[in-house]
Fold:
Amino acid sequence: MKFKSILYAFSALAVLCVFYSAPAGAEELVAVRLAVEFVDHAACAHIARNQGWYAQAGMEVDAFDNYATGMALSAALAGGGIDAAYMCLFPAINAYANAGVGLKIVSGTHLYGYGLVVNPVKIKSVQDLSAPDIRLGCNREGSPPAVLLHRLVEVYDLDSGIIDRTQRMSPSKLLLSLVSGQIDAAFMPEQFPSMAETAGFKELVSARELWPEMQGSVLVVTDRFLKAHPEAVGKLVSLTVRGIDYINAHPEDAAVIVAEELNATGGDIFPADITGNPEAVTITPEIIGRSLGRKMVNTCRVDPEAVQKAIDYAARLGYIRKAFPAEEILALEWLRE
Structure:
């Protein structure tokens, strides 16, 4: 969706944790191709688009594409058609380490934001997951839920065989499989666990329990876009933090906006065989409010040590070829403590 430019000076005083000073005469129209995952992890970007903030900042959004998974977005980044993306940290690491995508992490959007939901009739405790008749689903290898599945096995000393028999699907298909009774448990990114809870399932374990201070999603920009438009990167960071501040200050309004934005694109994401069940796929403000308010910590903060731990763990699991210094993909100069 494209927005017509409305040019005015964007005040850094309105942003609590970003400093950005645009040089005189730098307010020319900048086109940007954005991408997000179909999750409320990118709530700040949905709010910015809904409120017209990109246009107000002198940016024309040439694309605002939704991807069913972070791994799909990671693959799209390698294709060169994206300038900036709101995506989970592990797919960003994958894109850099495995696909050779030149990118920089310039802001965070949240901590945590993943959960294991189960059929409470069949599964009462984590240990029940080891039963051979329990059918477990998860996103594909390399995704944050897949990483957390390994953490679950380690933390609770479960039989690692449950990883081998886990069915791999996109979050929307996992939700469909839960609702239709094809699987008994699923590890998914928010807002899907909150949707499953509304449908009668129970969150058994959260990311907060398995990985304290886990970096959830981040804003990444390509090296190409950063080199060509450093002032636009500063604006994207400022708008990201403005959106995060809005979520924290106006949670009810934010939930309404994000639910509206996600429902507008949900028809293109959900499998055709679930869209006939409106109750199962409707994303309500109540769902988003619970997701943003209880399942995540909405913050622009990025802890380099936490990023390094994620890189090292991904390498240990074999999800990336080898570990590398986190500083290679961090460009946090637009953020301040």
In short: The CA atoms of residues 233 and 283 lie 31 Å apart. The mean pLDDT is 88. The chain has 15 helices and twelve strands.
